[in-house]
């Protein structure tokens, strides 16, 4: 029964449709996100990002693990959605859109999401050229090591669950695309 021509043809059609749909979602989602983000004022984006990052890095802040960022600026470029900001540290994370960066990290949302969900290693992405690090190499390594130390468990349960579900959805789409 498994070699039945009608069933094989139908399975192939479903596979082709799934592949096309996955490719379209992966291509279309960043464009929609970019247009939506463009409507949000920079101050609001920075305030929201600052609150999220301070919450995410609460443990590292309390343990003085971010002190190496004092007086330094790290630029984050999320290329596929056109989001760029700089961050520094002075008892809490400080975000800006107008600072000269000492080091720049560039990646797309899928890669950042997989790193956040601990489903991908930043080193692997770096060697695959999906994570670009330019500028102060030593500072870049410290930031990368900080990324590796972040525990998803420090986030509120809803945020943790959302990141995990998005990462699983992304991996599923990537398998079909």
Automatic annotation (TrEMBL):
Pathway: Cofactor biosynthesis; ubiquinone biosynthesis. Keywords: Ubiquinone biosynthesis. InterPro entries: SCP2_sterol-bd_dom, SCP2_sterol-bd_dom_sf, UbiT. Residues 54-147 form the SCP2 domain. SUPFAM superfamilies: SCP-like. GO terms for biological process: ubiquinone biosynthetic process. The keyword Hydrolase does not apply. Signal peptide: none annotated. Required for O(2)-independent ubiquinone (coenzyme Q) biosynthesis. Likely functions as an accessory factor. Belongs to the UbiT family. HAMAP family: UbiT. This is Ubiquinone biosynthesis accessory factor UbiT. The lineage of its organism: Bacteria, Pseudomonadati, Pseudomonadota, Gammaproteobacteria, Alteromonadales.
């Amino acid at each position: 029964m498994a070699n039945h021509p009608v069933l094989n043809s139908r399975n192939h059609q479903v596979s082709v449709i799934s592949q096309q749909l996955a490719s379209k979602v992966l291509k279309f989602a960043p464009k929609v996100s970019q247009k939506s983000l463009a409507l949000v004022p920079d101050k609001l984006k920075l305030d929201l990002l600052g609150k999220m990052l301070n919450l995410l890095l609460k443990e590292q802040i309390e343990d003085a693990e971010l002190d190496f960022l004092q007086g330094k600026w790290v630029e984050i470029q999320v290329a596929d959605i056109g989001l760029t900001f700089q961050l520094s540290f002075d008892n809490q994370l400080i975000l800006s859109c107008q600072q000269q960066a000492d080091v720049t990290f560039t990646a797309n949302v899928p890669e950042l999401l997989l790193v956040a969900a601990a489903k991908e290693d930043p080193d692997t992405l770096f060697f695959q050229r999906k994570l670009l690090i330019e500028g102060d190499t030593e500072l870049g390594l410290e930031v990368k090591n900080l990324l590796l130390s972040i525990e998803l468990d420090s986030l509120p349960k809803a945020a943790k669950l959302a990141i995990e579900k998005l990462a699983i959805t992304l991996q599923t789409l990537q398998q079909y695309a």
